Amino acid sequence: MEIFFVFGRLVLxxxxxxxxxQLAHHGLHPFYIVATTYAVLAVLSLPFLFSSAFSHLTPxxxxxxxxxxxxxxxGWMFLVMSLSRTDLSVFGPLNAYKVxxxxxxxxxxLGEVPTAQGFAGILIIVxxxxxxxxxxxxxxxxxxxxxxxxxxVQARFLSILLFSIGTIFLKGSLEHSxxxxxxxxxxxxxxxxxxxxxxxxxxxxxADNIKNSQPHVLPIAAxxxxxxxxxxLTLVLLSQMLIAYTLALFQLGMLLQVFLGYRIxxxxxxxxxxxASLVMIAGSLLVLQVN
Length: 291
Fold this sequence. Notes:
Elements: H1 2-25, H2 30-51, H3 59-85, H4 88-91, H5 97-110, H6 116-130, H7 140-149, H8 151-174, H9 179-201, H10 206-213, H11 217-239, H12 243-250, H13 253-265, H14 270-290
Helix pairs in contact: 1-3, 1-11, 1-13, 2-3, 2-9, 2-11, 3-8, 3-9, 5-8, 6-14, 9-11, 12-14, 13-14
């Protein structure tokens, strides 16, 4: 059953990214796109809120789910910002850096020093990154530098960092509740947080965004629905502590995103970016095999 959850989550994640990128291409602000997603999540959560009892939930649950919502809202903001500025076929393979960031967090907070195999995996992931950018007259170092200086890529790295921290608190909330309870309050707490972000971090008027989004109600609803189901599947997998196994299989999603970027958005360099993805997947699996 777990394998179906993993691949379901993988497909839904890619589908939601396609819709988010399309909405950004229609001129909607990334933060507003995230706000509409959380609005749909809140609507989907309300029936469960009124049909369930939550008196057994402990203060530790509320603290963890609130912090998870805070970091994940930030993660979604930077994720959609990245999609609005970066090819989907570049955005997807960058997911391999999640294992590097997780390793760095383990080093900083847990004192876990990476092994030689872990360092080798990191080098392979970085080597694969060179293939994501088109060749130029510059050196390979300049090629990698152009990747790191890309604003969309920087936003992707920030989203990965925030989601990685948020996962720590999601796991904490799951120690005191089930996946559905965590999903309900993760969704409901996220809505006011993203509305505050739209109020204070953007200059665009909410009324203008609402007017511009009216022709795109169905894609907005589709994003919210796919994220709702995707997050539930993620929480089920987290609750079963299949972290390394899940992360390893999630890496396959980058191949799907490269293909969707080529097929839907006419993005170039299909073969080179597929090759980059395969190299980065190999590096990711080498790192995850250590854990």
